[in-house]
Amino acid sequence: MALRADPQVPSPAGRAIEDLLAHRPRRQALAGFDPDYADIVDYIIRCTHRIWEEKNVGLCRSHYSEDCPIHTLAGPVTGVEAVVANTLATLAAFPDRSLIGEDVIWSEDQPGLFHTSHRIVSLMTHLGDDAFGPATGRRAEVMTIADCLVRENRIVEEWLVRDNAQLVRQLGLDPWTIARAQAEGDRRLDGDAHAWRADALARVRADRPLSPAPEVDHPAHPVCRMLTTAVNEAMLGDAAKILSVAVEGRWPSGRRWFGRGGWIGAVNQLVSVLEHPRLVIDHWAARPLPHDDVAVAIRWSLAGRHARAGVYGAPTGRDLLVMGVGHYRLRDDRVIEDITVFDELAVLRQLAGGLGA
Q1: Angle, CA 118 vertex, CA 278 and CA 227 arms, to 5°
Q2: How far apart are the first and last CA of the chain?
Q3: In whole angstroms, what is the distance from residue 169 CA to residue 85 CA?
C-alpha cells in the first residue's frame, strides 16, 4: 500500500480524545462497516473507547468474528466469547482501566481488508484478584500494541503484545516468581497445548515470514533491514546507521535509552544470550505523520536457543520464541523514536520451562 494512499485519513498521534471521538461523515470506503465509523482509524479508536471506557463489552460480539484467533506469546485464544470473557475479567481486576490510544498505523493489504497496529497506554488500579494474585491496590501504567486484521466491521485476526513484566513489577510482584508459577501450570497440560509454539519456532528458523518484504522504496524497508541486519547478521553498527544521532527509545520493563549506542545496547541485550538467533518480519505498515514525519509499524518474530548468561540469568538451554511489535517515527529518512513492545513475562515463562519449552 502506498504511503500516502487515502490522505483524508489523518493519524491520531498527538490529537485530543475529544477531537478523535467527534462524529464525522464517512471519508473512506469501508464496505460492510457500521455507518458511524468515518474511516479505519476512527473504527479502531472509537470501538476501543466504547468497549473499554464506556464498558460496553458486549460490543465485542459485533466487532470480532465468531472464530477470531488472537495470538499472544502466552498462547493463542480463539473466538469472540473468549474475547468477551477476558475483557470482563480484566475489568474485574482493573475496573478503572482507561486506554490512551497513541497511534494507529494501518495498511489496506487487500481491497476491504485492513491491517491496523494500535499503540495503547493503559492506566489502571489493581482492585480485584486475578491470575497474578490478590488485589494489590496499586496503580499501573502498561504499554500494549494490538495488531488487527479487519474486514467488514469485524476483527478477524489479532496479534497482541503487552509489557506484562513491567505490569507485575508495578503491582509489587516479582516477574520470575510469576513466570515460574505459570510454567508449573503449563507442565501439567497436555503437550499438544503448546504445539503452536513449536510450529512458530520452526517457521522462524526456516525463515518463513507471514508477509512479503516491503519494496525498497517503501519507508518500512530500511527499518526492516535494520532489524534483520542487527539480529541475523550481527552487524549492529551498520544496522544503526538508519537511526538519528538523537534517537530515543522505549522498550519493555521500563527500559529507556538514547542515541545509537542505546539502541545497539537494547537489541544486543536481547539477542546476545541466544545461540543462532533468527528474526523474521511478519508484517509492516507506514503512514504519514504531521510535520512530514512518517510512522512505521513492524511486527516481528525471533527464535533462538538460550545458551549464554545475560539479562535473563544463567543459560537454560531452552528454545526461546519472542513476538514483538515496534513503532518507529522517521524524520528525513532517519529513525528518531523507537517504541518496541513484547511480553517479557512470557519470555521468562519459557525460560522457566513453561509453554512447552
Answers
A1: 25
A2: 38
A3: 25
